[in-house]
Every structure is written in structure tokens, then in C-alpha cells.
Design goal:
Helix content is about 40%, strand content about 20%. By secondary structure, the chain is an alpha/beta fold. A six-stranded parallel beta sheet has the order 3-2-1-4-5-6, with helices on both faces. It is globular, with a radius of gyration of 15 Å. The protein starts with a strand and ends in an 11-residue tail after the last helix.
Length: about 190
């Protein structure tokens, strides 16, 4: 089954994670029916600051304004099966946890949860306070997956991109897509 995926990019630090995920989704296009992207204004600024480019403008996916409630994934009837928020700011996490659907990111997350589909939040902040931890627990109890942007090092990554890819490969696994990546003890 080809996946229909929503990717939300918030203004948290970690644009490299979003960039690498979108590159991987392009590479795995035979497994993907559709990718819709919501990218906040802050996310664009962070991308440009951290990556020194505006390459997000060249992606072959459809972008939706954060206030576009006519986007297909604003309703469960569109049958998007997965949503990834990468990176996920603590503000976005808090709004999702409390059910505040005041923009397309939080509305889409609400739809994914209510339809019992896969919501993956790549939380990117440190340290965490008790409010963050409780919000993570709330989202987890509602069926979401918290996948902190915490890289692994057993594959001996040599570049910043290889380090970030350890997180993105976990996200790809969580989505349920087949791909080649480092596997422990293989």
C-alpha cells in the first residue's frame, strides 16, 4: 500500500531533519502516493539560517498554507495515513496535546489521532520541563509517537548529515517504508 503522508515543519531548530526526510521521501517515491507539506514562516527562516539555502522551494511536493483548512488532510475522509512533524516545537506539541486545532498543523494532527492513524512527532528541544514531558505523555496516550531528534552513533556517522540521518531513518521505519539503513548487528 502506498502511503499518504503529511509533513509539518515547525520553527524549532533542526531543519536538517526535515530536509533529509523530504529527500528520503523523494527516493522512496514508489512507496508514496502523496506528500503534503505545511511549513511555518518560522520554519522557513530557520531552514534558511541553519542550511544557508531556500531549497525547500524546489521540492516536488505540494505545500499548504497553515490556514488552509481546505487541504485534503484537514479531514479524515482524505485517508492520509501518516503525519510527521519534523522538527516539532514544544509549542506545537503542546497545542496538539491539548487538542487546540487553530491551524492546519494542529488540525491535521487532530484528524490523524481521531482516525487512529500514525502521528510521529520529532521533538526537538532540550532540556525538557515537566509541561513538555506531560504533553509527550498525553500525545502518546492518544496514540501518537514521540520520536525525539536524538541521533545514534553505533553506525559511526562521519558528517552532520549522517548524524541527522540516524534520526530520519528511524522516522522512515516508523512510517513503515522499506529502505536501506544501518541495522544493529547486521
Amino acid at each position: 500500500m502506498k502511503r499518504k503522508i503529511v509533513v509539518a515543519i515547525t520553527g524549532a531548530s533542526g531543519a536538517i531533519y526535515a530536509k533529509l526526510l523530504l529527500q528520503k521521501l523523494q527516493e522512496l517515491a514508489t512507496q508514496v502516493a502523496d506528500v503534503g507539506i505545511i511549513m511555518s514562516t518560522n520554519a522557513k527562516q530557520v531552514w534558511e539560517t541553519e542550511l544557508d539555502n531556500t531549497d525547500y522551494q524546489n521540492l516536488p511536493f505540494k505545500f499548504y498554507d497553515k490556514h488552509d483548512f481546505m487541504a485534503p488532510f484537514a479531514s479524515g475522509s482524505a485517508r492520509y495515513d501518516t503525519m510527521v512533524v519534523i522538527p516539532c516545537s514544544m509549542g506545537t506539541l503542546g497545542r496538539i496535546a491539548s487538542g487546540v486545532s487553530d491551524d492546519l498543523v494542529t488540525r491535521a494532527a487532530d484528524v490523524i489521532l481521531k482516525e487512529r492513524r500514525k502521528l510521529i512527532l520529532v521533538a526537538r528541544d532540550t532540556p525538557l520541563n515537566l509541561i513538555h514531558i506531560r504533553n509527550m505523555a498525553t500525545v502518546t496516550e492518544a496514540g501518537g509517537i514521540i520520536c525525539p531528534a536524538v541521533p545514534s552513533f553505533y553506525s559511526k556517522p562521519q558528517t552532520i548529515e549522517e548524524v541527522a540521518l540516524t534520526v530520519v531513518n528511524r522516522v522512515i521505519d516508523l512510517i513503515g517504508l522499506e529502505h536501506d539503513s544501518y541495522r544493529w548487528n547486521e
